[in-house]
């Protein structure tokens, strides 16, 4: 797999992502500074990592979405190339209009840093085919602005087309207001683009790849990507 991890001023999860990709695929990704204008030749997967790009001014991800490299990321996505945005990366993808909707402040108006169950909504994608349909995974969240919303038409389109990737749930996979950790519409934790080649998600699968440091439920995502790329 040829992967590229884009780093912005204020990114802080780029090494965790790089480690997860190397662990799954055996190949270290290229690290690409945001000021670059091109992705490395032959890039299959672009990852926008978590963090606090530009200190979360003006809105989380708003300035990073206008970085030089984003034109190349847009072109890569338009060609059908894979793009993964985690946490601040998801915020950047929405601000760049590669994904619909926006991430508002958590409804509790607090930064949430905790373990959270997610339900895998579909497994016929490049990102999730190593999981089981409806599988409940245990990952970390760490964000102040993860409250995804969109206008009613966009939400209906996403639901009708099955573009929800993950929902916040309890340990049995039950989705309810109590398990919705940040107030997102329909407990949405991650969404796909229409062609399902772009995934944005608030939780951090890259931090759950090692049993010695918390668990391995994030591995499925990186192993899905690695096997798809190798094929
Ligand atoms: N861990 C992160 O990527 C944080 C995302 C973002 N800066 C927020 O707090 O909402």
TrEMBL record:
Pathway assigned in UniProt: Purine metabolism; IMP biosynthesis via de novo pathway; 5-amino-1-(5-phospho-D-ribosyl)imidazole from N(2)-formyl-N(1)-(5-phospho-D-ribosyl)glycinamide: step 1/2
Entry EC no(s): 6.3.5.3, 3.5.1.2
Cellular compartments annotated: Cytoplasm
UniProt KW ATP-binding keyword: yes
Molecular function via GO: glutaminase activity; phosphoribosylformylglycinamidine synthase activity
Catalytic reactions on record: L-glutamine + H2O = L-glutamate + NH4(+); N(2)-formyl-N(1)-(5-phospho-beta-D-ribosyl)glycinamide + L-glutamine + ATP + H2O = 2-formamido-N(1)-(5-O-phospho-beta-D-ribosyl)acetamidine + L-glutamate + ADP + phosphate + H(+)
Principal location class: cytoplasm
Domain of life where this protein originates: Bacteria
Keyword list, A-Z: ATP-binding, Cytoplasm, Glutamine amidotransferase, Hydrolase, Ligase, Nucleotide-binding, Purine biosynthesis
Pfam family, one: GATase_5
InterPro entries: Class_I_gatase-like (IPR029062), PRibForGlyAmidine_synth_PurQ (IPR010075)
HAMAP family, A to Z: PurQ
Subunit structure: Part of the FGAM synthase complex composed of 1 PurL, 1 PurQ and 2 PurS subunits.
Descriptive protein name: Phosphoribosylformylglycinamidine synthase subunit PurQ
